[in-house]
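Pasting as-is:
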Amino acid sequence: MELDRRGAELLFQVLTEREEKNSVAIASNESFSGWTKTFDPRLCAAIVDRLTFGGNIIETGTDSYRLATTRARAEQQAAD
């Protein structure tokens, strides 16, 4: 997912306002270190801080079927 700067700031604002008030669930195929592709590194650090403080991180250790299918399709198209 790509967000422009304003979208990333709005997401950060939502997370900040919900912090320690309500639950937030986020699923990602990308590790936290890869989130800098979507967010400015400084904003990324703040978002990860908000999400992980007092939170639970569940790593399934499985590859995404959808991601694998998309990559295979892209490779096939590049080969054609």
